[in-house]
Give the backbone structure.
Amino acid sequence: MRWFLVGLVIYGIGTGFKNGWLVVKWGQLFHEVGFTSVDPEKPMNWEDFIFNRLGMSKKESSN
């Protein structure tokens, strides 16, 4: 019964994200967690964030 309820919760969260009922402001979340290089007011640019964490630039990754 627990697994059924866990499945329903996961399904509900997935549906909420897909339909726009749940919105995560990733920039604000990461800024509050401690990534101060992220601007909480701007949309999250995942490519820049990942490359900065790896210490790479976009030019290096294309080679």
